[in-house]
DNA sequence: ATAGGGTTAG
């Protein structure tokens, strides 16, 4: 057999994703004394990447060097990609840096950029992207696909929007993969309105587009949106796949909608997806959380491969419904099948103990968590433990546990103690817990009510009054409304009626002008009218005027508010965008604590 | 002939 026939076989197998077989063929080829060439390596390396075999991969790298195929651009790119997919980003980097040729290739840059992004080295990816552009190497839509997923966190939203902008400018958005990727980016940033806008604007929605939007809603807890979109998808004649149904099932879980869940299960059967592990996990979770433990357990038992996620779902189900003993039994069984527990499964185990009143066993498992499994407990574990001790009346121990914490307790930890004080009528400790909890979650009204009830149980009318005054005070004062707007890498903060900004004069002049333009006929609809009487200028109006003054036409303006946007602001924004032809996105700042410091870090990356 | 990418569960 000639080299070319070996290569053809390799190609065929790799095309069919039979990567293990492809590597076997590669080995046979060597054994029969045939030398691999530049057409051999890309397939062999791709197989190593797909199977994540770093050792075989570096052995292949040696063969590449020995046969002198190194200068081949296809081989270089395959090497870079292989190392990245095996999580050896630095080795990929070395191949890239040592071959000047690579640094002229778009594909090679693309592979390396995507590799850095997917190995959580996004800032390096952005640096590479910058270097790529400085070197004059052409950027294409695949470059975007490597970069955009890195913006999947609110901090990077602005950068993601920049990438969106350049994609549109360069016409990369014709490629639906790029748009799907951007859509997912917005979803992961929690910017669902934006994702939806992109979704609605897509002329041809493929299955992946529907899935991205459906899972996006599911991940953000918008269960009703998921169900209505799923219906819409079916009415368009698009057939769901396992990814779609996972999103739908997770929403059924949220809503406790076992009926719809059952329908989905039938659909799974009829489509032949019955063996999909993701779907089975989602089904177990749905039935377990809806209280149908028999059904959940039946599906769980039938699963040939039970992952940590499957075990967590079933354990959580029993724990949630007060069957702590069963939950613990299952946990022990899981450990016996040599599955290493993680932090998440411990949350369900500890909360199972507290639901069932298994105080000492809970303490045991909590101790084992760190000692046996080397898992640092986080605040979510401590709040379970405080709840556990507190419900058992061991308030002193609960308090001492909080004091011994290495991580900072969050509101839920002190809140659990406060809840225990209610059960055991301990006013003194309740006051202490409240002091902390109110500092961490000053706007959570539930804790005020709890303390008030504790005072009321103790017939401490003075206390009740004190809390009531406090609540009224807070309500009266509220947190002052403020808005952020990002401009050139900095976040500008405005309070309502603010006059401290150095561009105040210009801003107010701009607002006047806008207000006048709004009076023009044709700008406001009839039903938009008659709402001009507020005295204090809202913070977001100031932010918007500032942004209009300081950003380029055509770019989108993101306004971040710390309070729920009232009807007025929506109207204002609607009218302004009509007048100046700019796009606005309003976001809720409560999801963006990192903006609280007033600075955004995207400057560093662009 | 050969390289780079988008959606999923606790």
Based on the model shown, name its key terms.
4 strands, mainly alpha, DNA-binding, DYW_dom, E_motif, 4-stranded mixed sheet, zinc ion binding
What does this structure look like?
Belongs to the PPR family. PCMP-H subfamily. Residues 526-606 form the DYW domain. GO terms for molecular function: RNA binding; zinc ion binding. Pfam families: DYW_deaminase, E_motif, PPR, PPR_2. It comes from Malus domestica (Apple). It is a single chain. The protein has 606 residues and is mainly alpha-helical. Among the domains are: 205-291; 482-605, no CATH class. The protein contains 31 helices and four strands. The chain has a four-stranded mixed β-sheet with strand order 2-1-3-4, with helices on one face. Helix 31 (567-580) links the parallel strand 3 (557-561) and strand 4 (584-588). The two termini are 53 Å apart. 41% of the residues are buried. The chain binds one DNA strand of 10 nucleotides through helix 1, helix 3, helix 5, helix 7 and helix 9.
Note poorly predicted spans.
Answer: 476-480, 526-535, 562-568, 588-606
Please tell me how large the radius of gyration is. Answer: 29 Å
Strand content: under 5%
For the biggest sheet, the summary is: 4 strands, mixed
Strand order of the largest sheet: 2-1-3-4
Class derived from helix and strand content? mainly alpha
- What share of residues is helical? 55-70%
- The number of strands is 4
Number of H/I helices? 31
> How far apart lie the N and C ends?
53 Å
Organism: Malus domestica
Family: Belongs to the PPR family. PCMP-H subfamily.
GO molecular function, one term: RNA binding
Protein name: DYW domain-containing protein
């Amino acid at each position: 057999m000639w080299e070319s026939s070996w290569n053809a076989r390799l190609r065929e197998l790799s095309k069919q994703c039979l990567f293990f077989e492809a590597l076997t063929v590669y080995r046979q080829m060597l054994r029969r004394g045939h030398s691999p060439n530049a057409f051999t390596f890309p397939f062999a390396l791709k197989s190593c990447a797909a199977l994540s075999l770093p050792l075989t991969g570096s052995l292949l790298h040696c063969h590449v060097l020995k046969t002198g195929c190194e200068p081949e651009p296809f081989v270089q790119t395959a090497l870079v990609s292989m190392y990245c997919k095996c999580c050896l980003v630095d080795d990929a980097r070395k191949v890239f840096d040592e071959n000047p040729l690579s640094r002229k290739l778009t594909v090679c840059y693309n592979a390396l950029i995507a590799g850095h992004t997917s190995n959580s080295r996004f800032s390096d990816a952005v640096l590479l992207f910058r270097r790529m552009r400085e070197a004059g190497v052409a950027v294409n839509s695949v470059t975007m696909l490597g970069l955009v997923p890195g913006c999947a966190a609110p901090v990077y939203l602005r950068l993601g929007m920049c990438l969106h902008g350049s994609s549109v400018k360069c016409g990369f958005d014709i490629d639906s993969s790029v748009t799907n990727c951007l859509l997912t980016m917005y979803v992961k940033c929690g910017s669902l309105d934006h994702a939806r806008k992109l979704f609605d604007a897509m002329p041809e929605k493929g299955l992946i587009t529907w899935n991205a939007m459906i899972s996006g809603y599911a991940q953000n807890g918008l269960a009703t949106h998921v169900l209505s979109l799923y219906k819409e998808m079916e009415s368009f004649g698009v057939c769901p796949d396992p990814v779609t149904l996972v999103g739908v099932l997770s929403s059924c879980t949220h809503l406790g909608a076992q009926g719809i869940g059952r329908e989905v299960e039938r659909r799974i059967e009829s489509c032949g997806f019955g063996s999909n592990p993701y779907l089975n996990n989602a089904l177990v979770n749905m039935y377990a959380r809806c209280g149908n433990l028999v059904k959940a357990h039946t599906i769980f038992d039938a699963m040939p491969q039970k992952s940590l996620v499957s075990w967590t779902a079933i354990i959580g189900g029993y724990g949630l419904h007060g069957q702590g003993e069963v939950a613990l039994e299952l946990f022990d069984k899981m450990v016996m099948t040599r599955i290493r527990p993680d932090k998440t499964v411990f949350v369900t185990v500890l909360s199972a103990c507290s639901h069932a009143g298994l105080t000492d066993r809970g303490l045991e498992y909590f101790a084992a968590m760190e000692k046996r499994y080397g898992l640092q407990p986080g605040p979510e574990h401590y709040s379970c433990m405080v709840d556990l001790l507190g419900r058992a009346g061991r308030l002193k121990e609960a308090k001492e546990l909080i004091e011994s914490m290495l991580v900072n307790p969050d509101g839920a930890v002190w809140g659990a103690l406060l809840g225990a004080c209610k059960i055991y009528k301990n006013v003194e400790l309740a006051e202490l817990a409240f002091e902390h909890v109110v500092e961490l979650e000053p706007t959570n009204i539930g804790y005020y009510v709890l303390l008030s009830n504790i005072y009321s149980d103790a017939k401490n009318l003075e206390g009740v009054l004190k809390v009531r005054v406090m609540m009224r005070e807070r309500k009266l004062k509220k947190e002052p409304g403020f808005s952020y707007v990002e401009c050139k890498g900095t976040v500008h903060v405005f309070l309502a009626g603010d006059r401290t900004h150095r561009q105040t004069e210009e801003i107010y002049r701009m607002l006047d002008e806008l207000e006048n333009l709004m009076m023009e006929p044709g700008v406001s609809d009839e039903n938009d009218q008659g709402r001009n009487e507020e005295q204090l200028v809202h913070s977001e109006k100031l932010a918007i005027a500032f942004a209009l003054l300081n950003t380029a036409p055509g770019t989108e303006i993101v306004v971040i508010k710390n309070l729920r946007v009232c009807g007025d602001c929506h109207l204002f924004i609607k009218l302004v965008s009509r007048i100046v032809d700019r796009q606005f996105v309003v976001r809720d700042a409560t999801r963006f604590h990192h903006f609280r410091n007033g600075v955004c870090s995207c400057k560093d990356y662009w």
